[in-house]
Amino acid sequence: MPELEARKPLSPFSYPKWVLLFSAGVLISTIYSLFLAPMYIQASKDLKAGRHAFYNENYNEAIDNYLAVLDVVPSSKEARISVAEAYFKNENLSDDEYGLIYLEDLRLEKNDWTRIKEVIPAKYEEYFDVIK
C-alpha cells in the first residue's frame, strides 16, 4: 500500500496528451458529421421521392430526384441504377444513352441486372458483360 500513497494523483484538467488528441479527434469528427447530416438526410428523402415518382410512372420527376441524390452522393450505386431505370422507362428514346452513362463502370450484381434487364432496350444489352 505504500506504493499507492507515493503516487501523485492527476490534478484536475491535466490529462495525458494522447487522451486530449483522441478527444479532439472525436469532437472534430462529431462536428463534421453534424455538418454533413442535413445533406445526407435530404438525399435520402430525394431517393424515396424518386422511388415514389418512378412507381407512379412520373419518370421525369424521378430523374430529377435521383439526380439530386447524385449531386450529394455521386458514388451511390442505388441512385445510379435508379436514374438509369427512369431514363430507360422515359418516353424520350434519346434519353436511353443517359441511362447507359450512369451504368458505366458499375459492377451489377445479379439482382441489379434483373432490375435493369426489365427496362433496358434490347439493343443495349450487348454492352454488358457477364463476369463470374
TrEMBL record:
Bilayer-spanning residue ranges: 20-41
Keywords: Membrane, Transmembrane, Transmembrane helix
SUPFAM superfamilies with a match to the protein in the record: TPR-like
UniProt superkingdom: Bacteria
Record protein name field: Tetratricopeptide repeat-like domain-containing protein
Source organism phylogeny: Bacteria, Candidatus Daviesiibacteriota
